Amino acid sequence: MWTESTDLVSMIVRATQYKLELAQRFPDEFALLIAVYKNDDNLPDGSGENLHRTFGQWTKENVDRLINPVFDRLKIRPELDKQVVRRYLLNNVKSMTERAQSYLQSHPDVKSIDQMTELITEIKMEMDIIEHGIVANGSGDDLY
Question: What is the pTM of this model?
C-alpha cells in the first residue's frame, strides 16, 4: 500500500497503481468518483451537493492518511521546522488536487485513471522536486 512508501514519488506511483486496480474492480463506482471529482453536472438529481461535500471531507481525510505516514519517514533537514515543511507539502498537494480537477474538467473524455498518464507524470515530477529540490547534487555547496 502507498502508506508504506519511503518517499513521495513512490507514494504517488503506489497510490496510482492502487487506484488503477480499484478502477478495474469497480468501474461504475470509480466513474462516479471521477464525476464527483471533476464537478460533473451529470450527477443524479439532488445528489451533487451532498456528494461534493462528502467527497471533500473524504479527500481531506485521505490526504492526511496518505501523506502523514510517508512524511514521518522522510529525513527532513534538521534546520527546518517539520510543521512548516508539512504545511508546504500539504499546500502543494492541495494545488495538485485542484489541478487534477481542472484537468478532468478540460478533458471530459477521461473516464479512468489510466487515461491521466500526462498529469500523473507531472505530479510525480513535482513530488520529486519537493523532496529533492531543483539544484543538482553538489552544485549548491557554494550558494551560501
Answer: 0.68
